[in-house]
Amino acid sequence: MASVITNQVTNTNSDRSKRKKKKKSMIKENQQSQNQNHARWKSESQQQIYSSKLLQALSQVSLNSPSPSAPRGGRAVREAADRALALAANGKTRWSRAILTSRIKLKFRKQKRQRGSAAAVASVTGSSRSKKPRFSVSKLKAKSLPAVQRKVKVLGRLVPGCRKQPLPVILEEATDYIAALEMQVRAMSALAELLSGSGASSSSSAPPPPTSQ
User: Fold this and answer.
1) C or N: which end of the chain has fewer Cβ atoms within 10 Å?
2) Residue 151: CB partners within 8 Å, gap ≥ 6?
3) How far apart (Å, rounded) are the C-alpha atoms in residues 32 and 26?
4) pLDDT in tens, 116-144
5) How many angstroms separate the Cα of 160 from the Cα of each of 55, 74, 107, 197, 201?
6) How far apart are CA 18 and CA 26, in angstroms?
7) What is the average pLDDT across 57-66?
8) Contacts (Cβ under 8 Å, ≥6 apart) of 170
9) CA dist 210 to 199, 200, 201, Å?
10) Contact indicator for 198, 56 with CB cutoff of 8 Å
């Protein structure tokens, strides 16, 4: 009887040690993959890939005639830059997939709003009852949350696709997203310097205007 009990205890201990080893190995693999992803955004080759995708996206923005619903000006450039960044990430992260699918979701939302506004106009009656102000339950819950949870919620809103994700996922996606944004700033700064330099050289090589005698 005692040997059976000791065997059960040893089996449970061995199972626990196996689980701990498996958990440690999974954590190491995740850390290695995260470090590889972060180092990828710092490489020159990745910056060149993003720069080429950015030039393609910007050329499409300038060539296509914008429709009334399409974004214009600085917003169009920003969306093109973010979309090129998501394409450079190959959709492997949650934030890149959220950026790539955001335009499709916006189209569906606009169509839904138009239908809803038309239905609301049709259902309006001549009743002059005073409407009471509505209180949002979600806002009241957000005020009652602890400070750490509120900060995590704000961080989840800042990173695309992480609004309702747990803290480990938000932190992993945020670190990768920040590294990608830093690379985006470097690429766009280099592109702006290149364009300004070419513009200055072309203006200096132009012939001087004729002088009036």
Assistant:
1) C
2) none
3) 10
4) 665 555 555 444 455 555 545 555 555 66
5) 23, 20, 17, 34, 40
6) 12
7) 69
8) 152, 155, 156, 159, 162
9) 22, 20, 20
10) no
Residue in this structure with the two tokens 């080759």, named with its chain if needed:
45
